[in-house]
C-alpha cells in the first residue's frame, strides 16, 4: 500500500522514521514505568489515612507531579533543554527526545497508576495490616496485584500518549514520523508523505490499544479466577 503511495526512497525514509519513533516510544515507556509506578505507589500509601501516611510529603509530591503535567509538551521540551543536554549530550535526535518524553509522560503514568491503586478495596489492605503484613508486603502482595488491570490499562493510555508526544517531538528536531511529516509533508508540500505518516501512526495506536485492552482483560480474568479459588 505504501509502495503505491510513495516512491521507494521515501518508503525507506518512512521505515527509518518508524524505527526512530518505536525506539523513542519504547525507551520512554520503560523509563516512565520504572519511575512513574513508584511515584504512583508513594502518592497512594502516603496519602492521609493510609498505612504510610505522610501528608506534607504527599502534598509536595502531588504538587510537583501536577506542575509537570500541566506544562504543554512543546514548552516542556524547550524548558528542560539544559537537562536534556546534560543527560544525552545533545538536544536533537532520537536519543535527546527520549529525555523530555520521559519527563512529560512519567507524571501521567504516576497518576493513572495512583488512580488504579485507589480503587483497591480498603478492607483488603486493613485485613493485611491486621495479619501483621509489612508495608512492602501490602504493596507487593495486595495493592499491586489487585490494581494490576487498571495499571495495565494505564500503561496503554501512556503508550498512546507517548506516540502523540513523539510526533510532536519531531517538529523540534526529535526525529521519527513527526519529523518526516513536517519536513516532507508540510515544508516540501508533499501531502502523500503526510497521509502515509498519519496512516502509520493510526495503525500503531490501534495496535497498541487493542493489545492493551486484551492484556487488561486477561489480567482481570486471572485475578477473578484467583479470588474464586480462595
UniProtKB/TrEMBL annotation:
Listed under GO biological process in this entry are: D-methionine transmembrane transport
Mainly resides where?
membrane
Segments forming domain ABC transmembrane type-1: 18-212
What is the protein's membrane topology class? Multi-pass membrane protein
Q: Does the keyword Methyltransferase apply?
A: no
Signal peptide annotation:
none
Name where it's found. Cell membrane
Q: What cellular component GO annotations does this protein have? A: plasma membrane
- Keyword field: Cell membrane, Membrane, Transmembrane, Transmembrane helix, Transport
At the top level of its lineage, which domain of life is listed? Bacteria
Q: Where are the transmembrane segments?
A: 29-48, 60-81, 87-110, 193-212
Q: Which NCBIfam families match?
A: PRK10782.1
Q: Which PANTHER family does this one have? A: ABC TRANSPORTER PERMEASE, D-METHIONINE TRANSPORT SYSTEM PERMEASE PROTEIN METI-RELATED
Q: Which family does it belong to?
A: Belongs to the binding-protein-dependent transport system permease family. CysTW subfamily.
Under which name does UniProt file this protein?
A: D-methionine transport system permease protein
Q: Which organism is it from?
A: Allorhizobium borbori
Amino acid at each position: 500500500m505504501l509502495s503505491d503511495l510513495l516512491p521507494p526512497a521515501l518508503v525507506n525514509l518512512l521505515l527509518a522514521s518508524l524505527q526512530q519513533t518505536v525506539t523513542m516510544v519504547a525507551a520512554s515507556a520503560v523509563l516512565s514505568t520504572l519511575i512513574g509506578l513508584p511515584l504512583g505507589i508513594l502518592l497512594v500509601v502516603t496519602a492521609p489515612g493510609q498505612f504510610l501516611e505522610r501528608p506534607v510529603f504527599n502534598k509536595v509530591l502531588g504538587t510537583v507531579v501536577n506542575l509537570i503535567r500541566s506544562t504543554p509538551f512543546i514548552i516542556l521540551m524547550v524548558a528542560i533543554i539544559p537537562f536534556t543536554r546534560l543527560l544525552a549530550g545533545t538536544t536533537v535526535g532520537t536519543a535527546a527526545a527520549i529525555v523530555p518524553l520521559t519527563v512529560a509522560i512519567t507524571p501521567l503514568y504516576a497518576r493513572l497508576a495512583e488512580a488504579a491503586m485507589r480503587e483497591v478495596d480498603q478492607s483488603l489492605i486493613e485485613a493485611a495490616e491486621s495479619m501483621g503484613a509489612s508495608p512492602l508486603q501490602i504493596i507487593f502482595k495486595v495493592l499491586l496485584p489487585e490494581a494490576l488491570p487498571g495499571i495495565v490499562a494505564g500503561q496503554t493510555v501512556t503508550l498512546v500518549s507517548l506516540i502523540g508526544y513523539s510526533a510532536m517531538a519531531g517538529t523540534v528536531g526529535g526525529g521519527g514520523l513527526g519529523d518526516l511529516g513536517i519536513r516532507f509533508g508540510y515544508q516540501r508540500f508533499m501531502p502523500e508523505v503526510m497521509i502515509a505518516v498519519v496512516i502509520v501512526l493510526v495503525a500503531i495506536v490501534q495496535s497498541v490499544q487493542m493489545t492493551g485492552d486484551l492484556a487488561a482483560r486477561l489480567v482481570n480474568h486471572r485475578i477473578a479466577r484467583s479470588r474464586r479459588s480462595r
